[in-house]
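User: Here's a chain of 223 residues. Predict its fold as tokens.
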Amino acid sequence: MAGRQVWNELVRTTAQLLTPLSSNPGGATTLWLSSVDGYLYFGTTPLTGPSAGAVDSVFGRAGDVVAQAGDYDFAELGATPTTLAGYGITDAATSAQGTLAETATQPDEVNTFTAGQIAEVTALVDGANISIDLEDSNNFSLTLGGNRQLDFPLPAPVPGQSGFITVTQDGVGGHALTYEAGYTFAGGAAPTLTVAAGAEDLLAYYVIDAAQVDIALAQADIS
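Assistant: Prediction complete.
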């Protein structure tokens, strides 16, 4: 890119390179893209926008006129944008959105909630072996369509997580739920479920460590 030029000067340009122009030595500068390799005379009136007619003549290197006004286009690039939209960015966070307010909930601090907090309930997929991922939620629901085994959580659970599992018998009922190794129970015996059709039992779980999850019957027959 050439140094800044002033209107009413003979300006040497190189094709496809930018030429900065200003209306006077102290005036604002705009950038113009020339499509020719030669000399341009911009006359006494500053260009106000993309306008070939504002250029008087194009001179070749030997000084001969190789084109007249209107033969070439000069695209005004204008000043540097001052907004994201000026750069064509349409999806960006504001400074307020990008800054975590002091009053926002911090996961590693004590927080006071002034409204109820609701944890989603994730439905487990029924099958001979029932998979559970404790990263999906804290609370789960399960409808038994037959005798099933609850597999140990994958990926490995994180100590301290707790929640509930609602276990519902289907319209037939009479189904049992067994547990893969890694689950532990008070007294060493797994909870006994209500087997009536449509019955619901509430199980509570607590992750002791990555290889042990304790399960207890929180409430029987809550339906």
